[in-house]
Amino acid sequence: MEGEELVPISALQHYAFCPRQCGLIHLEQSFEENALTLRGRGVHQSIERVDGCVREGLRVEYGLPLFSRALGVVGKADVIEFLPDGTPVPIEFKHGRRAERLPDQIQLTAQALCLEEMVGKEVREGAIFYFSSRRRKQVEITEELRELTKETIRQTRALLMSMRLPPPVNDSRCKNCSLIDICQPSIIAQGERRQRLQDVLFHGEGP
Ligand code: SF4
Fold first, then answer.
1. CA–CA distance from 59 to each of 25, 86, 104 (Å)?
2. Are the beta carbons of 183 and 24 closer than 8 angstroms?
């Protein structure tokens, strides 16, 4: 991966949620606080005081830097538990209630892949701790998740190197997105529709 753009692990979660959100944050450095991001920040500031997120009797590290030379990714783990044989188990903190969210699982899998390279042990599981419900969800680091994460790394790197902002998804994801005012998804989608109509009317170009 020498000479390739390093991809932040957080960008993978943003890309898997919405490529345009990833572009706005990581290419244009746009960041807007909303109730969800403020809650998310509060969660990360109070990790060490939360009961029930780690298993008793295990060594725990907070805020450990992560990297993978092979994949060209860098980041930081919220929490890592170490099993008695030294195998690391990454734990990612999320605000909200226990839920199946693929972007969160991709972020966790990227942490697991980094830890495998750093520690030299296979990481078969991780966990996501949902702060509002104080529930910990175990996540098996499956072959499918590994492949999906590697593909997300490739696509995110291509986006970051292209320096081009993707079009808006303009769907149900937008209503909870902190960047909706900057992104203006419905106005841009309207403009694109109008442009397509003009292309068809004046130049005979169609899909
Ligand atoms: S508002 Fe919608 S299209 Fe824009 S970044 Fe957010 S999720 Fe993506």
1. 34, 9, 24
2. yes
Give one word for 163, left, alpha or beta, with left for phi > 0 and alpha for psi -120 to 50: left
Beta strands in the chain (DSSP E): 7-8, 59-68, 73-82, 88-94, 125-130, 135-140
Measured in Å, residue 16 CA sits from the centre of ligand 1 at 12
Q: What are phi and psi of 118, to 5 degrees?
A: -75, -40
Closest CA to 71 of 119, 21, 111, 122: 111
Rounded to whole angstroms, the Cα distance separating 73 from 89 reads 18
pLDDT along the chain (207 residues), means of 10: 81 96 87 56 62 80 94 95 96 77 96 97 95 87 98 97 92 90 81 69 63
State whether the beta carbon of 23 lies less than 6 angstroms from ligand 1: no
Amino acid at 33: E
* Beta-bridge mates of residue 8: 74
Relative to the CA of 180, which ligand 1 atom is closest?
1
**DSSP letter (8 states) at residue 3:** T
Domain ranges of the chain: 7-164, 167-207
CATH code linked to domain 7-164: 3.90.320.10
